[in-house]
Write the structure tokens for this entry.
Amino acid sequence: MKMKGIRYIVVSVALVSIALVGCSRFEEEDLFEESAALRIEHNAEKLQEILVNAPYGWVMQYYTGRGVAVFEGFNLFAKFEKGGKVTLAGNHRYLRNGNANKYTECASLYELIREDGLVLAFNTWNDVLTPFVDPVSYWAAPNNLLKDGEGMQGDQNLVVMSMREDEIICRGERYDALIRLVKADCDWQTYINDTKAMKERITNSFIDSYYITDGIDTMYYVGLRNGRYRLSERVNNPLRVDSISCCFTPTGFRNERVDTLGRHIFQEFKLNEDASALVSEDGHVQVFATWDNYIVNVRNTTWNFNQDQLSDEQKNLLEQINTELYAFNKNYSLASIGLGRSTGSGAVRGLVLTFYVNTAKSKTNTAGLSLTTNCPSYGKMEILYGADEKADGNLTNLNKKSNIEEVVRQFAASISGTYDIIPNDYFLPTGCELHAVDGSGDYILE
């Protein structure tokens, strides 16, 4: 895959006023319909109306810092009233007084300041917002003043960059973080619950790296679950790493800033209809979890073959394995066969037999034969069997009183090949289908 870097695009808006001075004794017509001050006042009235006219209030996707992802993005909530009162809410980890990670609401004041443009100012203490602005160390608040009094580099004065009925884009007046207010379409607790469910759907502790691709160029996200992830040209030993902050949403996640990959611009990703990928606004850039790498290399449990899908020859081999287990101990019988990691001495990753060790079939043990598995390209698995593959201690022990190892090796040879993988979940698979590239056989692992 061709690797190509990503650059940040920071969009800024400047207001330019032009003064025309004439020498004629005749008064010239004003080129503007209204003065700059009057335009700002009218915009303030419009913004006030937009802020208040939101039955469910606003979701504030809040960021801190000088364009460097030190912290994750935070979903805060705001309900504005005409008299200058605002109620803010959140459940972030920097809430104080024992409220960290607990849903908290707090009322305070806001003001629309008329400067060169409009500034939305939260100008009194608010337990939800002010911890980001407080000039103290976030890890020792409220007693440890951080160098230069920067605290978490949060802003409470937000320069309004653009406004629509359903979206307001702001920039932190001091630290330049981009902050987005989007009109909520449900109550805040529902938004929190839906966002949490989506985060759990697309991130987890087992798979936390992702391909980001436009079909030509490919890079990687690592650490998305933290809301502050690394972007690089490869997962291991990257040459360059960019840190990016994002906010999770009920449909996916949104980065603080606009990025590019190849010729395509993106900022927000939403889960597509078949839940196989997260797709950018125009559909050109997609994010895929590295589920294929997880299936091939990282899985710590055993996924068993659905025996109904095996060939007649393979079913006969399983019957022979069961016979050999009985030959070793009349209480033993085969429970399943799959791919994973054995649990006996000299544990191996590869083909794993799970067998019962009592007639009640209430206790099991495993025996394993190593196999080489590779991920030759996205969504493919290569299973390689060679005569020198290692048997674990349990398989070697079973073979002392039976001929089981030879039969297991025959089964291993029968599944050797290259397969297309279809997972049962594209973000945390618990099983998959394997379709042989050469058409020699298909399997279901579950």
Summary: The chain has three domains: 30-185, 193-289, 296-445.
